[in-house]
Structure formats: C-alpha cells, structure tokens
C-alpha cells in the first residue's frame, strides 16, 4: 500500500519538498525530515490518528521527540 507523502498524496509534493529541503540546506539551516524518519518504520501511518495526516499519535510524538533529542545531542 502506498503511503501518502507530507502533502497527503502518493506523489503530490515530493518534488516541492525536495526543492524546499535543497534551499534550506543550501542556506545552512539545520532540518530534520521527520517524513523520511517515519518512512523507516514498517507502518508510518500508525503515527497519525485514524491513519490520516495531521497531528501525531502519542507514539508519533515520541519518535519526533527522540529525533530532536538525538539531533541536539549530536550537533
């Protein structure tokens, strides 16, 4: 099954997302691509209530928190 991207569709904004990430990194602004992190899990939609994009479940917020803490500790 396809997992919607950050815009809520299978192919909706991946090009725009990559352009934005390219601009951000080109400006030396640190960024955590949480969408990419969620996609490393077997069921990324499980991090969203009712499997709909928007807010995260408690487990989703836990992953986000872990990523932020990990990033801060290592940079």
Task: Describe the protein in words.
With 75 residues, the chain is mainly alpha-helical. It has helices at residues 14-26, 34-38, 58-74.
List keywords for this structure.
75 residues; mainly alpha; 47% helix; 0% strand; flat
Topology overview:
Elements: H1 14-26, H2 34-38, H3 58-74
Q: How much helix, percentage-wise, in residues?
A: 40-55%
Radius of gyration: 13 Å
Mean pLDDT: 88
| First and last CA, distance | 36 Å
β-strand percent reads: under 5%
Instruction: Supply the number of helical segments.
Output: 3
- Helical/strand content category: mainly alpha
Choose one word for the global shape: flat
The low-confidence runs, each spanning 5 or more residues with pLDDT under 50, are none
User: Total number of β-strand segments?
Assistant: 0
The sequence of SSEs as H and E is HHH
> Biggest β-sheet, characterized?
none
């Amino acid at each position: 099954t396809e997992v919607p991207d950050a815009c809520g569709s299978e192919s909706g904004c991946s090009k725009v997302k990559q352009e934005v990430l390219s601009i951000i990194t080109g400006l030396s602004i640190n960024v955590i691509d949480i969408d990419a992190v969620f996609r490393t899990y077997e069921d990324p939609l499980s991090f969203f209530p009712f499997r709909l994009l928007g807010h995260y479940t408690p487990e989703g917020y836990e992953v986000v928190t872990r990523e932020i803490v990990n990033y801060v500790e290592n940079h």
